[in-house]
Write a structure and sequence with these properties.
This protein is mainly beta and 156 residues long. It is 11% helix and 37% strand. The chain has one domain (2-147): Glucose Permease (Domain IIA) (Distorted Sandwich), CATH 2.70.70. The protein has helices at 2-14, 102-105, and strands spanning 36-37, 48-49, 52-55, 61-63, 68-76, 80-87, 90-100, 110-111, 116-120, 130-137, 140-142. Residues 1-14 have low confidence and may be disordered.
Protein backbone atom coordinates (compact mmCIF):
# COMPACT_ATOMS: atom_id res chain seq x y z
CA UNK A 1 0.00 0.00 0.00
CA UNK A 2 2.81 2.45 0.85
CA UNK A 3 4.52 1.72 -2.48
CA UNK A 4 1.29 2.42 -4.37
CA UNK A 5 0.75 5.71 -2.54
CA UNK A 6 4.37 6.71 -3.18
CA UNK A 7 4.04 5.90 -6.88
CA UNK A 8 0.80 7.89 -7.16
CA UNK A 9 2.34 10.92 -5.45
CA UNK A 10 5.37 10.73 -7.75
CA UNK A 11 3.19 10.54 -10.87
CA UNK A 12 0.92 13.35 -9.69
CA UNK A 13 3.91 15.60 -9.01
CA UNK A 14 5.24 15.12 -12.55
CA UNK A 15 2.17 16.46 -14.38
CA UNK A 16 1.67 19.92 -12.87
CA UNK A 17 2.76 23.33 -14.16
CA UNK A 18 5.68 24.92 -12.35
CA UNK A 19 5.37 27.88 -9.99
CA UNK A 20 7.29 31.07 -10.90
CA UNK A 21 10.89 31.79 -9.84
CA UNK A 22 10.83 32.10 -6.05
CA UNK A 23 12.97 33.80 -3.41
CA UNK A 24 14.88 31.38 -1.15
CA UNK A 25 13.08 30.99 2.20
CA UNK A 26 16.36 30.92 4.20
CA UNK A 27 19.72 32.65 3.68
CA UNK A 28 22.60 30.72 2.12
CA UNK A 29 20.27 27.85 1.23
CA UNK A 30 21.35 24.46 -0.03
CA UNK A 31 19.37 21.21 -0.20
CA UNK A 32 20.35 18.50 2.27
CA UNK A 33 17.41 16.20 1.49
CA UNK A 34 15.80 16.50 -1.96
CA UNK A 35 12.25 15.96 -3.18
CA UNK A 36 11.31 12.40 -4.07
CA UNK A 37 11.73 8.82 -2.96
CA UNK A 38 14.33 8.24 -0.25
CA UNK A 39 15.20 5.48 2.14
CA UNK A 40 13.73 6.23 5.56
CA UNK A 41 16.49 7.49 7.88
CA UNK A 42 14.51 6.77 11.04
CA UNK A 43 11.34 5.30 12.50
CA UNK A 44 9.15 8.38 11.80
CA UNK A 45 10.36 9.28 8.29
CA UNK A 46 8.45 8.40 5.15
CA UNK A 47 9.82 6.95 1.91
CA UNK A 48 8.57 9.82 -0.27
CA UNK A 49 9.81 13.29 0.65
CA UNK A 50 7.25 15.74 -0.75
CA UNK A 51 9.45 18.79 -0.19
CA UNK A 52 13.08 19.73 0.41
CA UNK A 53 15.19 20.27 3.52
CA UNK A 54 17.23 23.48 3.71
CA UNK A 55 19.78 23.47 6.56
CA UNK A 56 19.88 26.73 8.50
CA UNK A 57 20.98 27.87 11.96
CA UNK A 58 18.53 27.87 14.86
CA UNK A 59 16.76 31.20 14.99
CA UNK A 60 17.60 32.08 11.37
CA UNK A 61 14.92 34.05 9.53
CA UNK A 62 12.41 32.16 7.40
CA UNK A 63 10.98 34.39 4.65
CA UNK A 64 8.01 34.14 2.30
CA UNK A 65 9.16 33.01 -1.14
CA UNK A 66 6.52 35.23 -2.80
CA UNK A 67 3.62 37.46 -1.79
CA UNK A 68 0.61 35.56 -0.50
CA UNK A 69 -2.08 34.87 2.07
CA UNK A 70 -1.45 32.91 5.26
CA UNK A 71 -4.02 30.10 5.33
CA UNK A 72 -2.71 28.16 8.30
CA UNK A 73 -0.40 28.19 11.30
CA UNK A 74 -0.36 24.98 13.30
CA UNK A 75 1.62 22.20 14.91
CA UNK A 76 1.10 18.99 13.01
CA UNK A 77 2.88 15.69 13.43
CA UNK A 78 6.31 15.30 11.88
CA UNK A 79 6.29 18.85 10.46
CA UNK A 80 6.03 20.44 13.88
CA UNK A 81 5.21 24.15 13.77
CA UNK A 82 4.14 25.01 10.21
CA UNK A 83 3.07 28.11 8.30
CA UNK A 84 1.01 27.48 5.16
CA UNK A 85 0.77 30.28 2.60
CA UNK A 86 -1.32 30.48 -0.58
CA UNK A 87 0.81 32.21 -3.19
CA UNK A 88 -0.16 33.02 -6.79
CA UNK A 89 -0.79 29.58 -8.35
CA UNK A 90 0.59 27.40 -5.53
CA UNK A 91 0.57 26.72 -1.79
CA UNK A 92 3.80 26.59 0.21
CA UNK A 93 4.42 24.79 3.50
CA UNK A 94 7.21 26.06 5.77
CA UNK A 95 7.81 23.49 8.55
CA UNK A 96 9.98 22.68 11.61
CA UNK A 97 9.77 26.33 12.69
CA UNK A 98 10.90 27.50 16.11
CA UNK A 99 8.33 30.31 16.16
CA UNK A 100 6.25 32.42 13.82
CA UNK A 101 6.66 36.15 13.27
CA UNK A 102 4.69 38.11 15.88
CA UNK A 103 2.57 39.84 13.23
CA UNK A 104 1.39 36.45 11.93
CA UNK A 105 0.79 35.16 15.45
CA UNK A 106 -1.39 38.24 16.06
CA UNK A 107 -3.49 37.54 12.98
CA UNK A 108 -1.82 39.19 9.99
CA UNK A 109 -2.81 37.23 6.89
CA UNK A 110 -1.12 38.97 3.93
CA UNK A 111 2.64 38.68 3.41
CA UNK A 112 5.01 40.22 0.89
CA UNK A 113 7.82 38.46 -0.95
CA UNK A 114 10.82 38.22 1.38
CA UNK A 115 8.85 39.09 4.52
CA UNK A 116 9.96 37.29 7.69
CA UNK A 117 7.30 34.72 8.60
CA UNK A 118 9.17 32.85 11.35
CA UNK A 119 12.47 31.42 12.50
CA UNK A 120 14.17 28.09 11.96
CA UNK A 121 13.62 25.69 14.83
CA UNK A 122 13.63 22.03 15.71
CA UNK A 123 9.91 21.27 16.01
CA UNK A 124 8.40 18.01 14.81
CA UNK A 125 10.56 15.09 13.70
CA UNK A 126 13.94 16.33 12.50
CA UNK A 127 17.43 14.93 12.11
CA UNK A 128 19.22 18.26 12.28
CA UNK A 129 18.42 21.96 12.17
CA UNK A 130 16.65 22.82 8.91
CA UNK A 131 13.58 24.25 7.23
CA UNK A 132 11.31 21.80 5.43
CA UNK A 133 9.83 23.56 2.39
CA UNK A 134 7.10 22.08 0.18
CA UNK A 135 5.11 23.39 -2.80
CA UNK A 136 1.66 22.15 -3.79
CA UNK A 137 0.02 22.94 -7.13
CA UNK A 138 -3.64 21.93 -7.30
CA UNK A 139 -3.05 19.96 -4.10
CA UNK A 140 -0.20 17.93 -5.59
CA UNK A 141 3.44 18.10 -4.47
CA UNK A 142 5.93 19.67 -6.87
CA UNK A 143 9.71 19.74 -6.47
CA UNK A 144 10.44 23.34 -5.37
CA UNK A 145 14.20 23.18 -6.02
CA UNK A 146 14.17 24.33 -9.67
CA UNK A 147 12.25 27.47 -8.69
CA UNK A 148 14.51 28.50 -5.79
CA UNK A 149 17.89 28.60 -7.54
CA UNK A 150 19.42 26.41 -4.83
CA UNK A 151 21.65 23.37 -5.22
CA UNK A 152 22.46 20.28 -3.19
CA UNK A 153 24.66 20.89 -0.16
CA UNK A 154 28.29 19.88 -0.59
CA UNK A 155 29.29 16.75 1.32
CA UNK A 156 31.41 17.48 4.37
Amino acid sequence: MILIATALLHLAAADVPPPPQLLPPVAHACISSPFGTRPPPGPHAIGFHNGIDLPAPAGGAVRAVAAGQVIGIHRRGPGGLEVVIRHQGFVAIYAHLGSVAPALAWGKTRVTAGERIGVVGHSGVTYGMHLFFAVLVDGRPVDPAPFLAVRRCRPR
